[in-house]
Each structure stands twice: as C-alpha cells, then as structure tokens.
Amino acid sequence: MDRRSSLRPVAVLSLSLSLSLSLSLSLMLCALTIRSTVAEDPPEPQEYPCGSVPVEGTPVFTGAMGWAKFAFHNPPQNYNPNSWVEVTHPADYIPGVETPIQHTLRYAIEQTTGPRNIKVLVNGEITLRTGLTISNQSYVKITGEFATGSGPTITGSEFRIHDSNNIVLRYMRFRSSINAPNHCARSLLVWGEDEGCNDIIIDHCSIGASRDDNIAVSGKICRVTVQNCIIGGAVKGTSFAGIGSEPTLGFLPNENITFCRNLITNTFARQLIFGSGGRVDFFNNVVAVGATHLELCALDGVNGPKMNIINNFFRTTNVPYWGDRNGLYYEDPIRAKVVEDTSSFGSDELPWSTNEDSIHISGNIFMRRDWKNDLWEEPHTSDQWDFTCDANVQNPDPSGEPNFPTHLKRDTAWTMPSGDTIEDAEDIENIVLNGATNVIGAGCRLPLSDPELDDYDQDLVDAAEVGDRLYPFLAPDNNGFPGIPTLLLPVNGATGVSTNVTLTWQASDETDCYLVGIGTSNPPTLSSQCLEAPCCTGPSQCCTPYNSHDVSSLQGDTTYYWQIVSRDSCGQFAYSEVRSFTTAP
Question: What is the mean pLDDT of the chain?
C-alpha cells in the first residue's frame, strides 16, 4: 500500500481587520464553523491584496509543490520561455556610482526588463558590492542549473525579492555574510510592502551563512513555496539565523506559505519563527541542531499562523537555549508563549483566544538527545502534542514541559494544494539529506548525473545526520558590533596640510558605512541627518562606504578636528578617536 498522502485545495475566507477587536473575534469564530462545511467549494471571484489566485494547471516545473506551484500560470504574451539572459561575469558594481557591467547578475536583474529567464553560468562566487533586489518585477526565472562545477554562490550582501510576482529561483546559493563586513543582512529576503509579493517559488537553493535570519518571508505575502533547500549555518555564533515569517499589520486572504523537503540546521538560537496570520504548511522537513526549532507567535498582536506541521523529522540535540528550567533535559521543538488575554501582551506571544483550532501536528518523528546523560532517546512518534512547549507557563507543576493549550489543537489537517506528495517521516531524512531514486536531495545540487554539494553544505548535512554542532555558542571574531576605525592620515597634529585633503583610516569589521565628522570644534559635530539616515552606497558630504574621504575648500591656517564613526545596517555605531591637523596659510 502507498503510505503517502495527497491533499486538496482550501478555500480561504476573507476577514476584515478594520472592525473592532470584539467583532473580529466573533467573525473568526464564525469562519471556523463555516470553513468545516464549505472548504471544498471554490472561492468567490475577487481581487486579492497581492494578485489573483492562479487556476490549477501544469506546475511551473516538474516537482514544484505547495502554494506557489502554479506560478507562471498565465504569463504575458511577451514572455518567451526559450529566450535567456546569460550571466557569465562574476563581478558586481554599485548602481548609480559605478558603470554598469554587462553579463553580471546585477545587470541582468536591474538593467534588463520585462518577463525573462536569467541563466547564471558563473561557477563560483558572485560577491555583491551592495544589496541586490528584484523589485516591482513580474515573471522572472533565475536559475544556476546550467552552470558547471559547484555552480553560483551569491555572497557579500543581501539578495531580495520585493513587491514582485511570479518569481522562480532555482539552484543558487545565497550566503550574505561571506565576504561582507555588515552585521544585519539576511541571505535571502522575500518582502511584500506596497504591491506585495505573490507566487514566489524557491527550489534547490542553499541559503545560509547569515548574521540574521538566513531566509525571511515578510510583509504582504501571498503564495510562497520554499522547497528542497538547505537553510543553515551562521557566521556569528549568536545569530538568529533560521527562517523568519511575518505579516503586515492585518490578515491577508490567501496569505499561504509552504516549506517542504528542506534541511534546516545549525544555528545558535531559533531555527524558525512563524508569526503570520495566514496559512502555513510545514511538511517533510528535516530540522536539526538548534536551540529553538520552531517558534510560533502573532507579530501583529492578534493572528498567529493556521498551520500544518506534518511528517517532519526533528533532531533536538543541544542544551536548551532558554535555560535548564525545572531540571528539564531539553526543550520541546515546537514552542510558543501562549496567552488567553490579548488586551496587553507582546508580539512575541501567541493568543489562543483568537486562534482556536488552528495548529495541526501529526506524523512527525522526534529524535531527542538527553544532554545530561549523553544518550539518544528512542524515536518519539506518538503523542505529537506533547512535543509542544508553552513557554509562558512558569514553574509548571508537576515539573515538566507544559504543552500548548488544547484550544489551539486541530485534529484534522488544513486542506492543502492538490497533487502534493507527502512522504512518511521515517523516509524523509534520507530523501532530504541524501536524495532518493529520481529525487535530488536538498540544497544546490546541480541536476547532473551525479549531483554533489559544495563543502559548506556537505558539512551541514554531515552534522545534521549525527546531531553535531558546527558553530560555537561564542564567536569572538564576530561580536555583532562595528569595529572602531583606526585613523591614518593626516597624522595627528600635522601642520601645513592642504586645504584639499584626503582623510584615510583603516577599515573596521562588521561595518556597512562610515560617517565623517570634521570641523573646528573638538569633537567635530556629526549632523543628526547623517546619524539617522540609512547607510549610503556612495560618498556623500558626511558618509562613505570606503575607508577614505576627500574634503575640499577648507580655510587656510586653521586647525581642524576629525573623527570617523563606523556604522552597520542595524544602526549601531563605533567612534574613533579625535585627531587634529592645521592647514597651510
């Protein structure tokens, strides 16, 4: 008998959050009642906040699953599936400052227009000089599947999809903080703001080496699938570097996200956080080696996820991130701070009073290491709800991990897109980590006769297989703050300096840009505009991404004081010493 299951599409009801909280609550309760009787009916035709629902047809590529599987369902007439823009040059440039370079990835995204296919043929690293964004574009496919060797790796800065629709990313690596001084960049960000993002599918990518969430799906989002990816690793020991998912303030109809057949592993703190009010399907993933595996909350203060957690393989191995509460050996992998009263609570909490009957958990395998006695427990497959942890319960009695309240429990799965094959959890670790017959395992393994991972991903797979931690709790070389700049020229106290002078300093680590203060007062004044503005991408009057700055038209025979302030994209600063020089008469 085939033990795999196939589920059917769901009709999503639209609720208005412009009503009062009490009316919203009653409407939600009504919606829960109605949903059970009309889930199989087609939705009423309407315009959704970020695009109409695609009609089921042929998936965008063989093996596409989840809510975005029908991306490119109705491409415009000027889309030619057989025409390719080729990326053959590994260089990058700063837009608006430097001359565009043809055949680079930035040129293919920012200088070519319209629906198109982008073939990335670079074998090796493409180091971004600044963040690269697909913004307000439609029907764009980007793939590294035709490259040779290990294929393309995007480093240096964040790669973003912003307010775009029908976007496909396949066979790429995104590792933002390799070759990068900055602290805050994610490796891959899908971000809906004004027009929103819809029908975005990310397949066989490797997404890691970040100092923030490796991948974040945020804002006004409709229909996103992340499948067959390796999401893991961090370059800063205390990195929250897993998956982040959050909504705009309000519930979006058709806000549907699928994560399936991914390896999510080896970050210090949370591996995943889902704070959206929409529907999330999380199935056939391997989640290994993390302190908090899967965290649920309501980032808009009202709506937590309506979520299926089905047939995943969890490998919980390390000391509890949140401490040894009540002598516990571990913390359960599905976690939330659950509250009943929503009148005054933080956005990191999950209200059951507005999300009753919203979380379905079934078919998972929980592997757990007793870190006090240094042994593996037998695999846990029953009592699925017992592997949830209500972190808002203090000092539970009897001592033990308190489960989520049963108000949140949904006995049957939310309906899902038709045609998706859900494998048994006992098979999924091998499928995701190693591949199987006619199935390429997770990560950027090019579709060759013998697909292989690069060394970084192979280390993650090897560690996940046995529960090893690759990254220490402390990483002293990356403390999360910009380094202090060391001033070089002019030397302190110099005289006879030209009234047109170049200030130079030694570049500091974890720095996105430098603010330049120069004046006749000690210390020199830095304008509030410069301190509060985003980091610049090119030299301006008081900001530069480089470690030198030209100053002209100074007064003669005058003593000037100068100071450099390093800054990261989080808005954190580090001030150099103040030096002086005197200009020639």
Answer: 81
